[in-house]
Specification:
Blueprint: E1 7-15, H1 21-35, E2 42-50, E3 62-68, H2 73-85, E4 95-109, E5 124-132, H3 135-155, E6 161-167, E7 176-182, H4 187-198, E8 212-222
Antiparallel strand pairs: 1-3, 1-4, 2-3, 2-8, 4-6, 5-7, 5-8, 6-7
Length: 224
């Protein structure tokens, strides 16, 4: 992810017509490529396919990440829509948007000793969207999540970047979004490698598990 990214839009899509899956995949690539370079504040667009082991909302099969330099990703997206509106074709009826969210970057972590200028291209991500269960639970969760859990994820070395975002809309389910990036060729192998070596020793501190729940969690392979 671009080091200058401050705002993020996340879009989950699916094809609702099994016979038009190839058309859907071509449309996704065209739509994302068209957005690139259309406005100055749009830093990058990347797209990922859901790996079979990952449940997603509404059976979404693709997720796109739009990175903005602005900390107001909603306003940045409005500018993007205005810039690409002219000449834009109607979204095909076989493309179904399942979920969309807007986030501000909070923190980025790397494995100890990693030189960030030596990071190669991201090939896959683990995406975890969480919701806390009220103000008191939120305070307890926040006291543990970044300082302990995400630092622990970063130190294993499988993920070259661990990036935490916060939802700009407090009414939207999915307050916290963490994106863990890897340059392994197979993101499922990366996740499994980490789990096999470290998951057995992982323990939630007392009372932490009850503070939140996953809205979405899964691994995704990059296609664009």
């Amino acid at each position: 992810m671009d080091q200058a990214t401050r705002g993020l839009m996340v879009v989950f899509n699916r094809c609702n017509d099994a016979g038009r899956q190839k058309e859907f995949e071509r449309w996704c690539k065209r739509a994302h490529l068209k957005a690139k370079g259309s406005v100055p504040g749009l830093l990058a667009v990347s797209a990922y396919v859901v790996r079979p082991s990952s449940p997603t909302p509404g059976r979404a099969t693709h997720v796109a990440l739009y990175e903005f330099s602005s900390r107001d990703p909603k306003a940045a997206h409005a500018t993007l829509r205005a810039a690409t509106k002219e000449g834009a074709s109607k979204t095909p009826d076989y493309v179904e948007e399942v979920k969309r969210g807007f986030y501000r970057r909070q923190v980025t972590l790397h494995p100890p000793g990693l030189k960030t200028n030596g990071i190669t291209g991201t090939k896959g991500i683990l995406l975890a969207m969480l919701q806390t269960k009220g103000p008191q639970a939120d305070r307890v969760f926040e006291g543990w999540y970044v300082s302990t859990h995400l630092h622990d994820e970063a130190r294993h070395g499988v993920w070259h970047s661990v990036i935490r975002f916060l939802n700009v809309d407090p009414r939207d389910e999915g307050k916290s979004l963490s994106i863990l990036e890897t340059n392994w060729d197979d993101v499922e192998e990366a996740r499994n490698y980490k789990n096999e070596r470290y998951l057995a020793s992982f323990r939630y501190p007392p009372g932490i598990r009850e503070t939140s729940y996953h809205v979405i969690v899964g691994v995704y392979q990059r296609v664009l």
